Amino acid sequence: NSSKMWSGRFREPLDATFESWQRSFPFDVRLLSHEIAASKAHAETIAAAGILTPDELKQMLDGLDRVIPLSLEESTKLTNLDALRDAHKLNRAGVDLVISASSSIVALNPQAEDIHHFVELQLTKVIGDLALKLHTGRSRNEQIATDMRLFVREAIDNTLTGLTAWRKALVELAEQAGEATMPSYTHLQRAEPVLVAHWLLAYVSMIERDASRLIDARKRMNLCPLGSGAVAGATLALDRSIAARALNFDAPTPNSMDATSDRDFALEFTQAIATLGIHISRFAEELTLYSTAEFGFLDLPERFSTGSSAMPQKKNPDLTELIRGKSGRLLGAATTLATLIKGLPLAYNKDLQEGQEPVFDAADTIAGILSVLPAFTSSLKFRYDTMKTAAHSGYLNAMAAATYLTDKGIPFRKAHEHIGNAVRLAMGEGTPKTQRELQQLTLEELRTICPQFGEDFFPAITLEATLDCHDVIGGTARPRVKTALSEAKSRL
Ligand code: ARG
C-alpha cells in the first residue's frame, strides 16, 4: 500500500480484487502526453510561487520529458511482442512504459493506479525525491479535468481536419456532376427532379453545421482547471495564468467546484460527434440504398466493398453499413455521459472516471470513420443515365406543370386539380407499359381538362425547365446550384 498516493491514513491493505478493479490506468494511460504537459505547466506555476528553485524546475521539466521513453518514430516500429521487449530494453529512462505501433500505449507498470500516479512513480525513478514536490498545491481532481480537456481539444481539431477532407470530396463530386440530375424523394417516393450537385451540397450544409458546433464547443471548453485544487481552489497563492498560458488555454476556469466536476466539454463533444454521426449515417444509408439493383444509381467501388463467402455474385456495401453501425456507438457515448453526470452532487465523484472511455471511444470511432470516408466519397462513380431516366419518369414535373397554369392566372388549388386529372389521364387504365408521361399527352387531351393549356406547356415541363423553375435561394435551379457550389468551395 505504501506505493499509493494516499496511503498515510490507511493501515489495512486494499482488497486485491477491488484494487485492480478500481484502477483507471489501463485506459487513462493514453492521456500520458497530456498529463506530462499539464505537469510541466504546474511545475512552472509552483516554481513561480517559490516552491521550486530555478534549478529544481529545470530538473523537473527534463525529468518529465524523459517519462515518455520512446519517440513516436521509434514507437511505430513496434509491431510485435519481440519488438516490444527490445523497446523496453532500449528504454532510456528505465521507465515502465512503451508505446505500441497503433500509438496505443502498452503499460508495463503493475503498481500505477492511474495516469497521475504513474507519472509520479516514473518521475521518481528518473529524478529521485525531487519528484515528490510536484504534487504541491494540486489535486488529481483538477489534473484529470485538465487532461480530459486537452484530449477533447485535440480530438476536436482532428475531427475538424477530417471533416474538411470529407467536405472537399463532396464539393469535388458535386463539381464533377455538373448538370446531372436525379429524382429527389419525399416519403421515399419520387418527388421532383434535382441536380445531383444539389443533393451532395445538402450534406455539405450538414457538415458545416457540425463543424461549427465543434468550433463553438472548443471555444467554450478552452479554459484551464489547474489551480482549482481538490474542490475549493489551490491552497497556495498560485498564479493560475501561467499554466493556462503554457497549455494554450484562453484563461483559468472561474470556479473551482465547477472546474473539478464539470464534464460539459466532454458531453458537448460527444453530442456534437453524435449529431455528425447521424448525418454520416444518413449519407451511408442513401448510398447503400442507391447502390442496390433496384435503384442502380451507382456502382460501388470495389476497393471499398467486400464479397460474400457463400454467394459468388455479391458485392456488398460493408463500408457504408459499418459507418451506419458505428454511428450508433457515437450516440451511445453521448448517452453514457449524460446519464453519468446527471445525478452527481458537486464536486468530484469517482463516477467521473467512467466518463473517460466513452470519450475515447467516440474520438476513435469518428477518427476511424473519417479515415475512410473522404477517399470512399472521392471514388464514387454515379450512373448518371439511370439517375436521369429516374428523374424523367413518374410525373416528377407535375408541380412545374401546375406552376405553368398558375402563371396563366389559375389559382394554385385549381391548377393542382387540373394537373392531377392530367396525371390520371396519362396513367390510363392499362399496365405501366401503356402509361404515358405528362409531356406525351396531346394538346387536345389537355384542353379537355383546362382550356388554358397552350403549346408553351411542353417547353415549360422539360427536365431543364422543371429544375430551373425552382429559382430561389437554396433551390435546385441550375444557376442557383452553380452559385451555391462556388460559395461552398470558397468556404473550404
Ligand atoms: N482516475 C481518477 C479519475 O479518472 C483521477 C482522479 C482521482 N481523484 C480522486 N479523488 N480519487 O477520475
Automatic annotation (TrEMBL):
Residues 395-467 form the Argininosuccinate lyase C-terminal domain. GO terms for biological process: L-arginine biosynthetic process via ornithine. InterPro entries: Arg_succ_lyase_C (IPR029419), Argininosuccinate_lyase (IPR009049), Fumarase/histidase_N (IPR024083), Fumarate_lyase_CS (IPR020557), Fumarate_lyase_fam (IPR000362), Fumarate_lyase_N (IPR022761), L-Aspartase-like (IPR008948). SUPFAM superfamilies: L-aspartase-like. Pfam families: ASL_C2, Lyase_1. Residues 8-332 form the Fumarate lyase N-terminal domain. It comes from Tunturiibacter lichenicola. HAMAP family: Arg_succ_lyase (MF_00006). Pathway: Amino-acid biosynthesis; L-arginine biosynthesis; L-arginine from L-ornithine and carbamoyl phosphate: step 3/3. This is Argininosuccinate lyase. The keyword Cytoplasm applies. It is found in: Cytoplasm. The lineage of its organism: Bacteria, Pseudomonadati, Acidobacteriota, Terriglobia, Terriglobales. Belongs to the lyase 1 family. Argininosuccinate lyase subfamily. Coiled coil: none annotated. Gene3D superfamilies: Fumarase/aspartase (C-terminal domain), Fumarase/aspartase (Central domain), Fumarase/aspartase (N-terminal domain). Its main location: cytoplasm. The gene is argH. GO terms for molecular function: argininosuccinate lyase activity. PANTHER family: ARGININOSUCCINATE LYASE.
